Fold this protein.
Amino acid sequence: MIIEMRSKSQITVPHEVVTKLNLNEGDRFEIIVKGGVIFLIPVAVYPKSYVAALEEAATETAEAYKHGKIPVFDTPEDLLTFLHSEAYE
């Protein structure tokens, strides 16, 4: 598929691509140029406070796992059973 660059260096992403990737107005992209090829990668942008909270939760989870406080589950069903059990409360 061939598209054309317009004034102000703008391009239009074809509707077929927008639909296939479920893109919406306001979505953001990272642009990478590598070997003469342009890559547009859809990205999600979150507030720093949200990212910090996720990092903290990941660290706490890793520590709990290290100390045997979080079991390993063989199936998603085993995880759900644990989450609904009194052991998790």
